[in-house]
Amino acid sequence: MTDALGWRRKFGVIAPSTNTIVEPDFYRMTVPGVTAHFGRIHIRDQNMAGDEGMERLLDQIREEIGAACERVLTCEPDYMVMGMSAETFWGGVEGNRRFVEQIHDITGLRVATGAEACERALNLYGARRIGVVTPYQPVGDENVVRFFSEIGFDVVAIRGLRCPTAVSIAHVTESTLRGALAELDLAGVDAIVQCGTNLSMVGLADEAERRLGKPVIAINAATWWMALRDNGIQDKVYGAGRLLREQ
Fold first, then answer.
1. Span 116-135, mean pLDDT?
2. Cβ contacts of residue 211 below 8 Å, gap of 6+?
3. Which residues, including other chains, have CB under 8 Å from residue 120's CB and lie 6 or more apart?
4. C-alpha dist (Å) from residue 53 to 36, 68, 122, 165, 223
5. Which one of 144, 168, 180, 194 is most buried, counting C-beta atoms within 10 A?
6. Alpha-carbon span 146 to 50, nearest angstrom
């Protein structure tokens, strides 16, 4: 027997309880026969002002993620998708490897992470000099730079927006993001990557790619693309960037 709506695949998605962007983003990019089912990580203290605040936020995620995975497993998903990105970059390549192993050990399933999805996309486009926009504090940006540097990319510019709380990431305006993209483009990069799944960039990235003439990789679009393609689903999705439209 197959699921009446998720007859092709059911994705188990893990996201922080404070995130209001990734769930609607994934729903807007879904294709027939694929469904997303969310397990929420309870964030009790969403203050992420300064490096200490961001570290506290990550500590909460690490404490709660196992329970969130176990809850979402009760719907019997076929594959796991991380609707959060900071932890997938933390500790560089080795940190990402340990994180993927942790999720696999808990669920027994393959998993899509934002870090690996961005790596795949950048390699697909042959980009080497990249610019990055994040909602993070400096310690988060340092871990993003470490990850991309360890896999062979030159992060020539990074714009950290220093959001004060986890919820406030979703309040960043399109005007602010446009300014960040323009700043990164001036650095002469081959591609721009956006980190932070609660930062709304899918639609803007699609428009910016056409305007700037280079890949602009929104992390929610890249992660969803990885999940679909890992499961042999080649449907094209429009309005969410080149990856889902062309690759």
1. 98
2. none
3. 222, 226
4. 30, 22, 30, 9, 26
5. 194
6. 19
